[in-house]
């Protein structure tokens, strides 16, 4: 009897481990997305400096419309990627952020204080350094570019180092980047949105209220949230002047974080279903009996009800975002023609401001503020991390890439400034990747 109980508990645990996935661990395991991102950016650079450069640039100017007669939204392909596909990227960031606040690394002051403070310092100092170089004129509008951290690229570098990297460092960097994303979204909302249409913004607020009410009364159907979130909230924000990606973040926070079936009820019912399956008469062939098939279908259906809509959406959208949407964004935004005056572009105030902001500001902000808070609060680094790991994390946080490219597209409409920004972003991100890689590899290799 005791053996059967132990087996039942083992089977139940296997189902729970398999079906109720911790998305943060999956995110870390899928950090190879950084390699895909780098390949996409490299391909964009190669094509934009080849015989197909004209075709490359013309592709993103292709204009098409979505909608119906009387209500049509027309944009070129580049804007559909940045305003449409990237809204899905920000939606997943919102889901990750909500999960981390509810029960992850940002759920308690003790676990959140270091990465949040590091993220805050890593946003303030890059902006200050950029503005010290570009304090006036249209170039000053790029101050938000070096504030960003690309989590996929950063974790991709850690993936290359291997298993010797302490899990505490991966969690610290993930939490830092997520907190950094909050700052980036706020910067976009308050400083990089165009003239506000209050009617459209008010319409968006109504759709957001519908989503929150639906969550409050217990609606768990993800299709409902998709229809209201995309067809209502996103479109309204797109027309309002507030960047549409903000709507994606707000919609993510309206997604329910409670399952339809609570854990205890799920575990008890699963015990019953597993017992029924074990006692079902086999048919001695490869296919299942009708009774076995019915039980397994009920297990699948009941397991789905035990998952929160938030984690279900995050789990299903994450591969699409990191392996499809972000590479497409990188390929469409990283292209820049390296002309004969490349060195002049590299040492332009915009490029220097971005490189200095990322490579100096991020290091000073992340490492300096973390050390300051540790000294004031009398706390240490997470277990397994050393000061050398922290320095390496500072360099990896300087990989701006995706978010930096995104903000540069909002900050600069002038092609020459946009090209200078891209050169600064790509150069700084590459240098930060290399230096961060060797620092953390050395720190991890020297561990006892």
> Beta-strand level of the residues, as a percent range?
under 5%
How many domain units? Answer: 2
* Number of distinct helices: 19
Which architecture of the largest domain would the CATH scheme give at its second level? Up-down Bundle
Radius of gyration: 24 Å
Q: In which order are the strands of the major sheet placed? A: 1-2
Element-level helix/strand string? HHHHEEHHHHHHHHHHHHHHH
From the N-terminal CA to the C-terminal CA, the straight-line distance is 45 Å
Mean pLDDT: 83
**pLDDT under 50 segments (min length 5)?**
1-6, 11-30
Number of strands: 2
The largest pleated sheet is described as: 2 strands, antiparallel
Helix content: over 70%
Gross morphology: globular
Question: Would you tell me the structural class of the helices and strands?
Answer: mainly alpha
Describe the structure.
The chain has 448 residues and is an all-alpha fold. A hairpin with a 2-residue loop joins strand 1 and strand 2. The chain folds into two domains: 313 residues, Na+/H+ antiporter like domain (Na+/H+ antiporter like fold, Up-down Bundle), CATH 1.20.1530.10; 37 residues. The protein is 74% helix and 3% strand. The radius of gyration is 24 Å and the shape is globular.
Quick structural overview:
This protein has 19 helices and two strands. It is mainly α and 448 residues long. The chain folds into two domains: 313 residues, Na+/H+ antiporter like domain (Na+/H+ antiporter like fold, Up-down Bundle); 37 residues.
Which tags fit this structure?
single chain; 448 residues; mainly alpha; Na+/H+ antiporter like fold; two-stranded antiparallel sheet; globular; disordered N terminus
């Amino acid at each position: 009897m005791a053996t059967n109980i132990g087996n039942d508990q083992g089977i139940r645990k296997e189902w729970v481990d398999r079906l109720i996935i911790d998305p943060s661990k999956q995110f870390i395991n899928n950090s190879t997305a950084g390699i895909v991102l780098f390949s996409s950016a490299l391909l964009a650079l190669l094509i934009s400096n080849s015989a197909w450069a004209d075709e490359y640039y013309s592709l993103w100017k292709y204009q098409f419309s979505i909608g119906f007669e009387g209500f049509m939204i027309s944009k070129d392909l580049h804007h559909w990627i940045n305003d449409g596909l990237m809204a899905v990227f920000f939606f997943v960031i919102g889901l990750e952020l909500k999960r981390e606040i509810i029960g992850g690394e940002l759920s308690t002051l003790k676990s959140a204080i270091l990465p949040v403070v590091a993220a805050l310092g890593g946003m303030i100092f890059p902006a200050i350094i950029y503005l010290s170089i570009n304090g006036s004129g249209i170039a000053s509008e790029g101050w938000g570019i070096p504030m960003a951290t690309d989590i996929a690229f950063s974790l991709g570098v850690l993936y290359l180092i291997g298993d010797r990297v302490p899990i505490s460092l991966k969690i610290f960097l993930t939490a830092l980047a997520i907190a950094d994303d909050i700052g980036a979204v706020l910067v976009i909302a308050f400083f990089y949105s165009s003239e506000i249409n209050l009617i459209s913004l008010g319409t968006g607020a109504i759709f957001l209220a519908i989503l929150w009410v639906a969550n409050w009364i217990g609606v768990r159907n993800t299709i409902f949230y998709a229809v209201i979130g995309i067809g209502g909230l996103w479109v309204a924000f797109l027309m309002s002047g507030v960047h549409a990606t903000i709507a994606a973040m707000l919609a993510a926070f309206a997604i329910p974080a409670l399952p339809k079936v609570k854990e205890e009820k799920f575990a008890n019912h699963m015990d019953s279903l597993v017992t029924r399956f074990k006692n079902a008469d086999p048919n001695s062939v490869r296919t299942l009996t009708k009774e076995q098939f019915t039980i397994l279908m009920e297990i699948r259906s009941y397991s789905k009800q035990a998952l929160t809509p938030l984690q279900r959406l995050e789990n299903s959208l994450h591969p699409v975002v990191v392996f499809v949407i972000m590479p497409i964004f990188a390929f469409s935004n990283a292209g820049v023609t390296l002309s004969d005056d490349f060195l002049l572009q590299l040492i332009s105030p915009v490029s220097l401001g971005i490189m200095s902001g990322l490579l100096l500001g991020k290091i000073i902000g992340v490492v300096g503020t973390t050390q300051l808070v540790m000294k004031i609060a009398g706390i240490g680094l997470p277990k397994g991390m050393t000061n050398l790991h922290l320095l390496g994390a500072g360099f990896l946080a300087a990989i701006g890439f995706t978010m930096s490219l995104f903000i540069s597209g909002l900050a600069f409409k002038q092609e020459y400034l946009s090209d200078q920004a891209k050169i600064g972003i790509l150069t700084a991100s590459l240098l930060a990747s290399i230096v961060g890689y060797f620092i953390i590899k050395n720190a991890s290799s020297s561990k006892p």
